[in-house]
From TrEMBL:
It comes from the Bacteria. The keyword Transport applies. Coiled coil: none annotated. Keywords: ATP-binding, Nucleotide-binding, Transport. This is Ribonucleotide transport ATP-binding protein mkl. Belongs to the ABC transporter superfamily. The keyword DNA damage does not apply. GO terms for molecular function: ATP binding; ATP hydrolysis activity. Pfam families: ABC_tran.
Length: 262
């Protein structure tokens, strides 16, 4: 019997996005299932982050449909769109923290915009988010310039969780981190996914993230999805870029039956 797949929490159909005379996404189709970590890969400069920003409404599309939580984003009123936006969190590649605000104040920005809370509750909720991402309590009063690269990622992750989102968008979350820090961040994301029931869409170049954190992977090529599935499916695919990416010189070694494969 064929396993029934859950309805997609995000569904993209025939998406076309471009800038001036260049078309970046060319009729792209992609489903992201509720409760999964979807890794999104592809050659540099080919539109991985463009897809994220288009879903978020930061880049206009030329045609196609984007449905989130079963709703067509084009058909929403401003109020409906704002309610949907409160149900997702975003971590941009370099954190995008406000440099003039402390970690606590950065986390409180979306809370102040969307929630009517007392200062006491704002401080308490910010403290909980800081603890949730593995930062020490004293990080609350530090400014971004006082944080390491790993701490900036965690502080930005805490801010993305400020409104208890159902979907988390991560843009190159482990870039700039050493292997240990990247592995710890992957573990944190996987733990948050399990404990909070998050759906995660993660743009990444990190092979270790794809192997250890992602339930499925989608690969972008020439503006479309060239393959999507679990890691075994991607490893077996014959597309030239996928072969080079997953089996090239920097491919991750896999140990099976006492033998080492790449």
């Amino acid at each position: 019997m064929q396993e029934t797949q859950p309805d997609p929490i995000i569904s993209v159909r025939d998406l076309v996005v471009g800038f001036r005379d260049r078309t970046i996404l060319k009729g792209l189709n992609l489903d992201i299932r509720r409760g999964e970590i979807m890794g999104f890969v592809g050659p540099s400069g080919q539109g991985k982050s463009v897809l994220t920003r288009t879903i978020l409404g930061l880049i206009p599309k030329r045609s196609g449909t984007i449905r989130v939580f079963g709703q067509d984003m084009d058909g929403m009123s401003l109020g409906e769109r704002r309610r949907v936006e409160q149900r997702w969190g975003v971590l941009f590649q370099h954190g995008a923290l406000f440099s003039a605000l402390t970690v606590k104040q950065n986390i409180q920005v979306p809370m102040r915009e969307h929630l009517n809370l007392s200062e006491r509750l704002l401080d308490e909720f910010a403290r909980l988010k800081i603890e949730m991402v593995g930062l020490k309590p004293e990080a609350a009063d530090k400014y971004p310039s006082e944080l390491s690269g790993g701490m900036i990622k965690r502080a930005a992750l805490a801010r993305s969780l400020a409104l208890d989102p159902e979907i988390l968008f991560l843009d190159e979350p482990t870039s700039g981190l050493d292997p240990i820090g990247a592995g710890e961040f992957d573990d944190l994301v996987a733990t948050l996914k399990r404990t909070l029931g998050l759906t995660v869409f993660m743009v990444t170049h990190d092979l270790d993230s794809l192997y250890t954190a992602c339930d499925r992977i989608a690969a972008l090529g020439d503006g479309q999805i060239i393959a999507a599935g679990p890691i075994d499916h991607m490893l077996a695919h014959e597309h030239p870029w996928l072969r080079s990416y997953f089996h090239g010189k920097r491919a991750r070694a896999i140990v099976t039956g006492g033998d080492i494969h790449v």
